[in-house]
């Protein structure tokens, strides 16, 4: 009897493109309306073929037939049928596209690509396959069999290796008779050195235990650090570069794209925050430059993300709080980011369109739903770890937010958090409920500490959106709130959550002071290469480290802020974040 793909047995399989194209929630938020001209919103020559990285067909080793068969065809057709466009403010219209096309002769849009000064007119959604369900982790062995994988490398960290999520995964692999090797040395908040250690382990071990010298697939069981490290190991082991920084985002690295499809990777998150199971980004600290950077490409997206609420039971309260605030900021930042059709420069070819593209109708759906779920379940999930419903819904909210910001991107809260995290080892702060030997600031905490100041600042770009999300978070009488008060109202809702869930009162509580603002600003601004003349010597706490910083995406997250943000604005925001209430 023919084997039934385990994906079809999933509790819930989220096919983002098909679901959004056909779902009623999308129609309610962004009504599809015919244009007066009757033109298509997306011209047929811009519909990507199966070899494009945004297509599920690009990874020939594993796919779900629903996405590539009639269902996928129907979804793609719904986006290109005549007379349909998304109704949304300030977006490019078919008329705009016709105007751009007619200007091709003058260089506006030609075979060699448009002028870089022009804004983009399209966005893409390339989400991972997601499975959600209590106990879904137990299916991973069957998934690997369906993929044809016989030799697998499992990634986790030293804390998780003896806990239920990893034990369940290894038992599933044994039951399915899949050979595996366990790598349990992942570092929380990875560095370039820890990435290299993982890559070396994979490369050398595969030569010893596999007939081909390569693992057939990877499984990551853990939080964002584990999943990101596994993504990097998959990339570097599959396509070894001449230099480690070949794939790293500019300006630290060369930003070269992966030459082809990677090995299948199944991501099984054990926290409800990063959304890494749905993104093509892997973040690490570059220790020598005292900076945080990463690798960003659609091909890094996991083949399958298994979101199993059982795996978050072991998450302590403060870990759940920091993770949840990361979800909050993912959703808020992606929903308030610059609209995709205002982002510049327009890519010369579709393949050069960045992973983070600005707010767009599809990402909006995921972000808003994530915020709706967070408002209902976040506090419950932190204050009662036995509240299985709340933990389950927050796990799902994290994935929703990951799908949203995986397309739209993030902006100032995250951009400002990275220099804070990079300087953490100069401080003495050790967070409660984290098993760490040295000072560390949890990612979600470093992000949300900037959120009140950031959203007061960005609200003028789109007061309606800021008021809308404030209402989702519990603000009353929002229809009577003046546009000028949209930012403060949203900030107050965030602060109320921070107080209730015992988040420190600003950067000062972590050991920073006003004397650090110059270094923090320098760290948040887009930098040149390490050998440039833009280095900054920190002056406090005997920090004599040259501080540079590269954003997680070559497009730089600060450029996705809805309002222009330079050195002066960042300095004010950091100052306002020193003490929040």
Automatic annotation (TrEMBL):
Catalytic reaction annotation? (S)-3-hydroxybutanoate + 2-oxoglutarate = (R)-2-hydroxyglutarate + acetoacetate; 4-hydroxybutanoate + 2-oxoglutarate = (R)-2-hydroxyglutarate + succinate semialdehyde
Which Gene3D superfamilies does the UniProt entry name for this protein?
Answer: 3.40.50.1970, Dehydroquinate synthase-like - alpha domain (1.20.1090.10)
Record-annotated Alcohol dehydrogenase iron-type/glycerol dehydrogenase GldA domain positions: 129-309
- Would I find Transcription among this entry's keywords? no
Which InterPro entries does the record match to this protein?
ADH_Fe/GldA (IPR001670), ADH_Fe_C (IPR056798), Alcohol_dehydrogenase_Fe (IPR039697), HOT (IPR042157)
Question: What UniProt keywords apply to this chain's record, in alphabetical order?
Answer: Mitochondrion, Oxidoreductase, Transit peptide
Name one molecular function that GO assigns to this entry: metal ion binding
Q: Under which name does UniProt file this protein? A: hydroxyacid-oxoacid transhydrogenase
């Amino acid at each position: 009897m023919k084997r039934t793909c385990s994906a079809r047995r999933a509790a819930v399989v989220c096919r983002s493109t098909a679901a959004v194209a056909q779902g009623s929630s999308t129609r309610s938020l962004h009504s599809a309306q015919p244009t007066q001209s009757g033109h298509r919103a997306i011209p047929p020559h811009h519909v990507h073929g199966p070899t494009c990285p945004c297509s599920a067909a690009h990874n020939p080793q594993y796919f779900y037939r629903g996405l590539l068969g009639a269902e996928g065809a129907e979804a793609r057709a719904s986006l290109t049928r005549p007379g349909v466009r998304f109704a949304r403010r300030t977006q490019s219209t078919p008329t705009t596209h016709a105007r751009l096309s007619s200007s091709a002769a003058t260089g506006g849009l030609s075979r060699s690509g448009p002028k870089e000064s022009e804004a983009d007119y399209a966005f893409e959604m390339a989400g991972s396959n997601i499975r959600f369900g209590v106990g879904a982790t137990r299916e991973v062995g069957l998934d690997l069999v369906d993929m044809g994988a016989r030799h697998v490398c499992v990634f986790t960290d030293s804390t998780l290796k003896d806990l239920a999520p990893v034990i369940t995964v290894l038992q599933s692999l044994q039951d399915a008779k899949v050979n595996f090797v366990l790598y349990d040395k992942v570092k929380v908040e990875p560095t370039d050195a820890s990435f290299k250690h993982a890559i070396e382990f994979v490369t050398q071990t595969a030569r010893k235990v596999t007939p081909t010298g390569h693992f057939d697939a990877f499984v990551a069981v853990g939080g964002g650090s584990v999943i990101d490290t596994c993504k990097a190991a998959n990339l570097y082991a599959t396509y070894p570069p001449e230099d480690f920084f070949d794939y790293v985002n500019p300006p630290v690295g060369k930003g070269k794209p992966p030459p082809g499809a990677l090995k299948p990777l199944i991501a099984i998150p054990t926290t409800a925050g990063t959304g890494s199971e749905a993104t093509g980004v892997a973040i690490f600290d570059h220790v020598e430059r005292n900076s945080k950077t990463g690798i960003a490409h659609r091909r890094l997206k996991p083949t399958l993300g298994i979101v199993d609420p059982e795996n978050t039971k072991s998450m302590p309260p403060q870990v759940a709080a920091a993770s949840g605030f990361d979800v909050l900021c993912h959703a808020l930042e992606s929903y308030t980011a610059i609209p995709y059709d205002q982002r510049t420069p327009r890519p010369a070819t579709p393949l050069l369109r960045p992973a983070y593209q600005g707010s767009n109708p599809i990402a909006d759906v995921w972000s808003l739903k994530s915020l709706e779920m967070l408002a209902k379940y976040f506090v419950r999930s932190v204050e009662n770890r036995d509240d299985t419903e709340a933990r389950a819904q927050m796990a799902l909210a994290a994935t929703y937010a990951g799908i949203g910001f995986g397309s739209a991107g993030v902006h100032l809260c995250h951009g400002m958090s990275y220099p804070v995290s990079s300087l953490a080892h100069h401080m003495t702060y050790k967070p409660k409920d984290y098993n760490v030997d040295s000072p560390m600031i949890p990612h979600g905490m470093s992000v949300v500490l900037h959120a009140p100041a950031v959203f007061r600042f960005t609200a003028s770009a789109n007061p309606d959106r800021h008021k809308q999300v404030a209402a989702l978070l519990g603000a009353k009488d929002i229809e009577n709130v003046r546009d000028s008060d949209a930012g403060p109202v949203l900030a107050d809702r965030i602060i109320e959550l921070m107080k209730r869930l015992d988040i420190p009162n600003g950067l000062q509580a972590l050991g920073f002071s006003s004397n650090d603002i110059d270094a923090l600003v320098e760290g948040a601004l887009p930098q040149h290469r390490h050998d440039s003349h833009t280095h900054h010597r920190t002056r406090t706490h005997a920090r004599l480290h040259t501080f540079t910083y590269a954003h997680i995406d070559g497009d730089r997250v600060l450029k996705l802020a809805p309002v222009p943000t330079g050195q002066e604005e960042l300095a004010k925001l950091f100052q306002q974040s020193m003490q929040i209430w």
